[in-house]
Amino acid sequence: MTTLTPVLTDNWGDERAWTLAAYEARGGYQALDKAFAMAPDAVIESVKESGLRGRGGAGFPTGMKWGFIPQDNPKPKYLVVNADESEPGTCKDIPLMMASPHTLVEGVIISSYAIRANKAFIYIRGEVLHVIRRVQRAVEEAYAAGHLGTDIHGSGFDLDVVVHAGAGAYICGEETALLEGLEGRRGQPRLRPPFPAVAGLYASPTVINNVESIASVPSIIANGHHWFSSMGTEKSKGFGIFSLSGHVQTPGQYEAPLGITLRELIELAGGIREGHELKFWTPGGSSTPLLTAEHLDVPLDFEGVGAAGSMLGTRALQIFDDTTCVVRATLRWTEFYKHESCGKCTPCREGTWWLVQVLSALEKGQGSEADLDLLLDQCDNILGRSFCALADGAVSPITSSIKYFRDEYIAHLTGGGCPFDPSRTTAWAGQEVTA
Amino acid sequence: MTTTPEKATDLVSLTIDGIQVSVPKDTLVIRAAEQVGVQIPRFCDHPLLAPVGACRQCLVDVPDAGNGRGFPKPQASCTLPVAEGMVVNTQATSPVADKAQQGIMEFLLINHPLDCPVCDKGGECPLQNQAMTNGRGDSRFSAGGGVKRTFPKPISISPQVLLDRERCIVCQRCTRFAAEIPGDPFIALVERGAQQQIGIAEDAPFLSYFSGNVIQICPVGALTSAEYRFRSRPFDLVSTPGVGEHDSCGAAIRIDHRRGKVMRRLSGEDPEVNEEWITDKDRFAFHYATQADRLTYPQVRDRVEDGGDGSLRPASWPEAFAVAARGLAAAGGVGVLTGGRLTAEDAYAYSKFARVSLGTNDIDFRSRPLSAEEASFLAAEVALRSPGNGGVSYADLETASSVVLAGLEPEDEAGTIFLRLRKAVRARGTRVVAVAPYATRGLSKLSAQVVRTAPGAEAAAIAGLDGVDAGSVILVGERLATVPGALSAAAALARRTGARLAWVPRRAGDRGAVEAGCLPNLLPGGRPVADAQARVDAGTTWGVDHLPDAAGRDADEIVAALVSGELGGLVIGGVDPDDTADPAATRAAIEAASFVVALELRETDVTRAADVVFPVAPVVDKAGTFVTWEGRPRPFEAVFASPGSLPDVRVLAGIAEELDRPLGFRTILEARAEMQEMGPWDGERAGHTAVDAVPAGGDGFALATWKLLVDNGSMQHGDKAYLATGRVAVARLSPAAYDAHGPIVTLTGDRGSVTLPAEPADLDDDVVWVPANSFGNGVLAGLASPGSRVTIAKGDPA
Description:
The complex is a heterodimer.
Chain A: H1 20-25, H2 30-36, H3 40-50, H4 62-67, E1 78-83, H5 93-99, H6 101-115, E2 119-124, H7 129-144, E3 160-165, H8 175-182, H9 196-199, E4 206-210, H10 211-223, H11 225-229, E5 239-246, E6 252-257, H12 262-268, E7 278-282, E8 291-292, H13 302-307, E9 316-321, H14 326-340, H15 346-363, H16 370-382, H17 390-414
Chain B: E1 11-16, E2 19-24, H1 29-35, E3 59-64, E4 75-76, E5 87-89, H2 95-110, H3 126-134, H4 140-143, E6 155-156, E7 161-163, H5 173-180, E8 187-190, E9 197-200, H6 212-217, E10 223-225, E11 238-243, E12 252-258, E13 261-267, H7 280-284, E14 299-301, E15 312-314, H8 317-330, E16 334-338, H9 344-357, E17 363-364, H10 372-382, E18 386-387, E19 390-391, H11 394-399, E20 402-406, H12 410-413, H13 415-428, E21 431-436, H14 441-445, E22 449-452, H15 458-463, E23 473-477, H16 486-497, E24 500-504, H17 510-516, E25 522-523, E26 527-528, H18 532-542, H19 555-564, E27 569-573, H20 583-592, E28 595-600, H21 605-609, E29 612-615, E30 624-627, E31 633-636, H22 648-658, H23 668-678, E32 701-706, H24 720-723, E33 731-733, H25 735-741, E34 744-749, E35 752-760, E36 767-771, H26 779-782, E37 789-794
Helix pairs in contact in B: 8-22, 9-17, 9-22, 9-23, 19-20
InterPro entries (chain A): ComplexI_51kDa_subunit, NADH-UbQ_OxRdtase_51kDa_CS, NADH-UbQ_OxRdtase_suF, Nuo51_FMN-bd, Nuo51_FMN-bd_sf, Nuop51_4Fe4S-bd, Nuop51_4Fe4S-bd_sf, Soluble_ligand-bd
Function (chain A): NDH-1 shuttles electrons from NADH, via FMN and iron-sulfur (Fe-S) centers, to quinones in the respiratory chain.
Protein name (chain A): NADH-quinone oxidoreductase subunit F
């Protein structure tokens, strides 16, 4: 049985954990001095050795990304923290910034020092105003305490941090669209190459990392990369926050080594809703193909989930029990992607428009079984044909749900509508009182 | 398809559909495929715009990226550069690529309205065509009861350009054009998903001088012109190539006509000149030739002294020729004034007519402020220069280390130069230095370093320029003629630094007129009048023993001589008195002349005062040649064969024959042949007599002015939508002067007053700028001459 490994979440329960005083009381900002005692390249090396892989979903090795920054480029270097957490089901960066913004700020300072950036940006999803305020306040406190600004801790290293609020677009979680937004332009993904490491923000070398990746850095520096790499699996080292939502007894954030299984996590979360069984789940948010009860023992690391035909993604585990109509869930997700498609490329813009129409008809029991093949063909024409990965994510729930629950789709057609009662999936199911 | 001529130094070999091909490094796969004859369907791709990869129509399969590994997904060939050893399979050989393309095409069509039968683009529509070649025959979307996204039908994004958002496939060609090519990013994507559309800011319509290009490059019928909308179907049109007649840039255009009527004009393709872009003036301003006041038959005046009632009456061609010849022969000395609209052949006819038929050198094409210094400069520094022969070309602008602009506002006065300079600035960081009264929007789009110069101080400013070297190009505008010493200073700067020099006139016919000798000091082919050998040389071709050797009068002197009675007759063609240095004097000269022969397209003050009026052909009715500012001949053929619409050549030949001193040709082709036979002068060219600068100064405000691209010029009449895109006439003042006199000012000069809204700009405190022909009868007629002093008073806000 894998146990929880609270590192990032360890202080979340502390009294006023988000304040500088509370953070420093637990040894906060001490990793900074340790990092400053190292050469920047040694910090990069340490992160490389730790095996930390990007926590934003793609799992790219963080240290390697930092190593791509051409240090001989005369332009300024930038660190950009992607805090535009918007993936349906994903809920880890926002609680982290809410509960312990200084963990992120300390990570930003060490990471900037490593890549030799004197300016860092934290791009926070615009809808979460309370979080933006909390991070702004933390940055203010850090400046006042000398953790930010010029000659930090007497190291000679200068860093300014800008907290930037997004304007409400899912696509801005895509790193190049985020850069466009940060530069004040319309948030749409950029053509690559050039890659951000060479020409990112303001056409300068830029590292873009997820909140959790950056927040993991202080612990790696403080405890050493061996400590970090001792956790997790062979190719997916360390720990991560698993956000469990949906039909479990105790939804929430569970920090555990990569490679833990859903069975273990559900157990930690008190099991599936009383009287029900697991039906399907997403391993990493709605953009990752669905899995079912047969995948309960798949190790939740990049390789294990990949082998099961899905992706670890952001470890956003949305749990659905047997009351849930998979067609309905898939339609809701598809509507989300239609709403969030930026419109830049044809397959995503037009494809999501069409997918919603076909799925809506199916949900109402209209159409025929041939429409399932039409749906799959549309998905085939979208997947891998679009400009960025948004559309790939949009078709994941459709293709995977048809793969595992084709019969349920057909039941809608034969039964003339949805065989499920949507109210039974709600948290208040069974509590209705009749007048 | 344009392939930019690049030096093929680094070749890369790849295999496309099993065929080996070598293409220059950095070539995109979509264009490499064209080399093996495979047309990959595309919408957003445009060879002159930066790649965007938005439409995804050009997906191809790449089983080997050149490193032994393939791409797992189909790749957009419009954003993928070639690599050595790359293997590409297009729709021709790869089922994956074919299905990917079919899929994209199906998506593009789901929200596209089926209004092809009434759409302007139907018949020449890339979406329609490629849907036929790369799409499916039926719609699965419609079959499944799909609901299309709809928008209200068109919205205006400018007075000239309409946007039908339903048809738009948001390929971003228009927005990329606007941002990249002219630098007028007034249109942008707004909203998202299927609602994404092209939009403008509420208070900022797409007022670009080059806006019409977006209509042409739109791969669907989303952008249409207010003027052409619903007027014809592409398959009913006949296309004839032509040359822009509105400036000296010589842009290639395509004239689309139907049953004897021009329906629209498009940009032609000429990588050497205008690439694929033209100004809105070249595109939309063609209705001038079909206005109600167009002259269609000769007229002669029944003179009171001959017993008539003094009015003009229709006449036959033979009668008009005879009357004109008789009148000119009796008039004593005759001067010849030609405007800037002449083709080189027509100009040649005027030049020969003056020398051979009238026996005078009193001829001048410069129907605008001029100087003797300019005539000398044109003979010494301009005539006979052409690309490859000491002249500057468009390509030279791109490779120049720096470009100096003096007396020239390219965006207004030479749009094609403006675009080429912008290309150079964007691609190579070419330094542009402008001797100008203030940093105009056009100059800021060229990132120009402005050497702020008050009118009259240009000579000193040019002399004081530094950073000019042998790799530089100096472009001087015709406006410098009014500044004593300015052209001399430019010539001296070029000599001192080794920089190359070119003169950029405003009108299409000006440079050809220099070559044809429509100047008092030049015969055709750059032959100096003052050079006896040159006169003999010209006389030999013309078969005459003697050519007039007396120095001719320039336009101002012809006007003065007519007023004083030294000259009696006047042959005038294409001259608007209000364009001349002194409009009142020109009108007085026409009035004073004992006999006036006018050759005109439309009725004007000149034709109303003339004794014989000949209608002449507009460019669509005749063949001809315009010579660009570079010295590049741009021949074109007649679009229509209109027997009653005769070129100036034919009219002058008719008069000359009646004078018994024939020209020896009657047609454009014959004139052209004689011009070729005569050839350029290979003797010593005239030297330039340098003129010293005169210190400027005085009370009040120095008047800076030039003509905007879209203004009240008579060749822009007839298209309301186009005229509505013109910039509002304002007076520009320094911030201090604006604070003192704004926001509405009344300017008073020696010729009149005008009240205009004012705008602050970075002008000297004693300089005011106004557009030259955007109000009333223009600055020259209604205010003062450029460079002179005007007074400013606070205007009445009412």
